[in-house]
Amino acid sequence: QVQVGESGGGLVQTGGSLRLSCVASERTFSPYSMGWFRQTPGKEREFVARITWSSNVTAYADSVKGRFTISRDNAKNTVYLQMNSLEVEDTAVYYCYGRRSLRGVPIWGQGTQVTVSS
Questions:
Q1: N or C: which end of the chain has fewer CB within 10 A?
Q2: How far is the C-alpha of 104 from the C-alpha of 96, rounded, in Å?
Q3: Lowest mean pLDDT: which of 3-12, 23-32, 80-89?
């Protein structure tokens, strides 16, 4: 069964940058899309960004537009989230997901903590 796993979280000061990575466990995994959600305690998981694998079309939450960039490496079955100009409000556990089809059940990673300090 395909799994996805995140890395790259950590502690950074306001205005700093981090790059998250998410890799699918199987080279044969051909996702329809991959992307990122985030969650803080007591709140629902919220959409951050996604990328459609075949077309490279991207979408972002309004709160991260202009600061975050999602990209992919087909050969490595990896999706990246470059996060710049980080704000305290970006502090959350970031979860990667992959979907095999438009309405397919998402495959979730275990999450990686991002903490932005003031």
A1: N
A2: 15
A3: 23-32
